[in-house]
Amino acid sequence: MKCYECGKAEMEVLQGIHEYEVAGLPYPVVLVGVPIERCSACGEETVTIPDPEGLHRLLALNIVEADRPLLPEEVRFLRKLLDKSAEDMANVMGVDAKTLSRWENGKQKMGKVAERLLRLLIHQKLAPESATFAEDVFPRLHDEGEAGPVKFSPSDGGWNQAA
Ligand SMILES: [Zn+2]
């Protein structure tokens, strides 16, 4: 296929590394080995992200299993993943919508119990077969810690965490 931008060269397809911007998360989500089409004439690149829903699910599981506090941007990402409005989510969590909004914009720190409830809601939705999530993960949560870049690569029919 000729480059749709300049029309001068065929697009070549390679497996590459792509920094994926998702839901305003403040750290890089690095996709390793995704198909990238590149034009040798003008440098135009198109990245194809296979199974984006699967990627978002893995990212969400990664977040709720992280042993450091959730970031405000992650709280919003997780709510969107549940496909809930702020009002509906606030109802589920047992708080008012203003409180949820302050958690999501970083103006108020989420309490430990509320944070664990959110993690549990997400995990139950994405991995309902794992009944021991809370007892496995909650005891090792820390009050501090940096959110790092995360790396994923596509595999047959899904996504895996990459080294
Ligand atoms: Zn081109």
Q: What would CATH call the class of the largest domain?
A: Mainly Alpha
Helix- and strand-based class? alpha+beta
Level-2 CATH architecture of the largest domain: Orthogonal Bundle
Look up the CATH topology of the largest domain: 434 Repressor (Amino-terminal Domain)
- How much helix, percentage-wise, in residues? 25-40%
Describe the structure.
The chain is of the alpha+beta class and 163 residues long. It has helices spanning 52-65, 72-81, 86-93, 97-105, 112-126, 133-137; strands at residues 11-20, 29-39, 45-47, 150-155, 158-161. It has 2 domains: 1-50, no CATH class; 51-148, 434 Repressor (Amino-terminal Domain). Strands 1, 2, 3, 4 and 5 form a 5-stranded mixed sheet that branches. 17% of the residues are buried. Zinc ion (ZN) is lined by residues 3, 5-6, 8-9, 39, 41-42, 44.
Summarize the structure.
By secondary structure, this protein is α+β, with helices and mostly antiparallel strands. 37% of the residues lie in helices and 21% in strands. Strands 1, 2, 3, 4 and 5 form a five-stranded mixed beta sheet that branches.
SSE inventory with pairings:
Layout: E1 11-20, E2 29-39, E3 45-47, H1 52-65, H2 72-81, H3 86-93, H4 97-105, H5 112-126, H6 133-137, E4 150-155, E5 158-161
Parallel strand pairs: 2-4
Antiparallel strand pairs: 1-2, 2-3, 4-5
Helix pairs in contact: 1-2, 1-5, 3-4
The chain binds zinc ion.
Question: Which characteristics define this entry?
Answer:
163 residues, alpha+beta, 434 Repressor (Amino-terminal Domain), 2 domains, five-stranded mixed sheet, 6 helices
